[in-house]
């Protein structure tokens, strides 16, 4: 009955079974995208002193524009410096990250 109402009354078609659900990003993917936002900010501004509420817009590999809460992310990386890998610390330092 519900399916009939959806299709006949509301004009809603059932979902196609073979459509893939949206892929979930790994933590490494999320870090890489935020790093790209930090890199873009650093190249444009010449520093990485990002205001806490700053949102950076970047275009991903899929050509979709995404907003990244860069200020919060930078603050989180700074507060988690002791647990970051040396590679990630080096990447951020190369962009001008101030750790203290």
Verbal overview:
The protein is mainly α. The chain has a domain at 43-100. It has four helices and two strands; from the N terminus they run ααββαα. Strands 1-2 form a two-stranded antiparallel sheet. A hairpin with a 5-residue loop joins strand 1 and strand 2. The protein is elongated, with a radius of gyration of 20 Å. The protein starts with a helix and ends in a 6-residue tail after the last helix. The model has no long low-confidence stretch (mean pLDDT 88).
Give the SSE order as H and E letters. HHEEHH
Distance between the termini: 63 Å
Biggest β-sheet: strands ordered side by side in the sheet: 1-2
Poorly predicted tracts of residues:
none
Total number of helices: 4
What percent of residues adopt helix (DSSP H or I)? 40-55%
Percent strand:
5-15%
Mean pLDDT: 88
Regarding quaternary structure, what we see is single chain
Could you say which structural class the secondary elements and strand pairing correspond to?
mainly alpha
Count of beta strands: 2
Radius of gyration based on Cα positions: 20 Å
Task: Report a brief summary of the structure.
It is built from four helices and two strands, in the order H-H-E-E-H-H. It has 100 residues and is mainly alpha-helical.
Layout of secondary structure:
Blueprint: H1 2-9, H2 27-45, E1 56-59, E2 65-68, H3 70-79, H4 86-94
Antiparallel strand pairs: 1-2
